[in-house]
Design goal:
This protein is α/β, with parallel strands linked by helices. Helix content is about 40%, strand content about 15%. It holds the Pfam family Epimerase.
């Protein structure tokens, strides 16, 4: 997709100040869209010129309704929510309310915009119950994402709304990510700057995961907004499994510092997110990853070095 279909369109992005949200604002603005960045707090991130920023509590039904009535968006990219598994154990009701009710309030408000197309961004960590068995979600976060999907598909069925669901794997890139690649990159930079000797602890070297650059994911979301089939769940993955050992080795090759790592535990199998066949539906729409894994790691390292330089300078 060349982005021309987005020129002059109103694109509302929730969770705009988050890791993916910042990249999404940049992409859609570059595509010529009229971007509306929805945030909970106005002081978290500065978007610069030509971006309309709206403060809205997505768990406040009236605020959400007023937002949609005022903007009347053509496209909605829903990124907001709580995505921490540990936090979901600490306060499961808050995570369920924040994730599930926000989707319901948003989709219900969008009933006044029948032509609006919405992408709800879920997670590969969602819980998928087995038919005929008592539900046994691994954690409250996975339950919240499963419920998000259920209510989204139900709203599409009940009210005929244009709703697509995206399920990203492990997104990586520059910015405020808490993913393993960013955490390890921060350890590398700390070793460069301070000679840190404390080892970074990782599980088995052979543990594999699917990693996708966040900018490629944003392009996938844009493709779904314009060309996706309503009521369809789209995995957003690279299709390539990479081991923790490979990540560590690549980052080590990008620095001259001595970076201690401690390998704990045993290796497990792949996370199942990188199957090539799962990418087929997105590929049919013309999307494919463009940014290499090595380039993503270099961008992460460069960003961390810049941020740490500002902190220590």
């Amino acid at each position: 997709m060349d982005g021309a279909e987005l020129t002059g369109k109103k694109v509302l992005i929730t969770g705009a100040s988050g890791f993916t949200g910042r990249h999404a604002v940049t992409y859609f603005q570059g595509a010529g869209a009229d971007v509306v960045a929805v945030v909970r707090r106005p002081d978290v991130y500065s978007f610069g010129k030509n971006v309309d920023v709206y403060v809205c509590d997505l768990n406040n039904k009236e605020q959400v309704r007023e937002l949609i009535q005022e903007i009347e968006p053509d496209y909605v990219l829903h990124l907001a929510g709580k995505n921490s598994v540990p936090d979901s154990w600490a306060d499961p009701l808050l995570v369920l309310e924040t994730n599930v009710m926000a989707v319901l309030y948003l989709l219900d408000a969008l009933r006044i915009c029948p032509k609006a197309r919405t992408v709800i961004v879920g997670s590969r960590l969602k819980y998928t119950p087995e038919p005929g068995r008592i539900p046994q979600p691994p954690h409250p976060y996975s339950l919240s994402k499963a419920l998000e999907e259920m209510v989204s598909l139900s709203w599409k069925s009940l009210f005929g709304q244009q709703i697509m669901l995206a399920e990203p794997g492990n997104l990586i890139g520059a910015g405020p990510s808490t993913g393993i690649c960013s955490l390890l990159a921060r350890h590398v930079v700390a070793c460069e700057q301070t000679g840190k000797t404390e080892a970074f602890r990782l599980s088995g070297r052979d543990n594999t995961r699917d990693f996708l650059d966040v900018r490629d994911a944003v392009r996938a979301y844009a493709t779904l907004l314009v060309h996706g089939t309503s009521g369809t769940v789209y995995p957003v993955v690279s299709g390539v499994e990479r081991s923790l050992g490979e990540i560590a080795d690549l980052l080590m090759s990008m620095t001259e510092a001595k970076v201690p790592i401690r390998w704990d535990g045993t290796s497990s199998g792949p996370d199942g997110a990188g199957k090539q066949e799962e990418m087929s539906e997105l590929r049919k729409l013309g999307w494919q990853p463009q940014i290499t894994f090595e380039a993503s790691l270099r961008d992460i390292l460069s960003d961390v070095r810049t941020q740490q330089g500002r902190t220590t300078g």
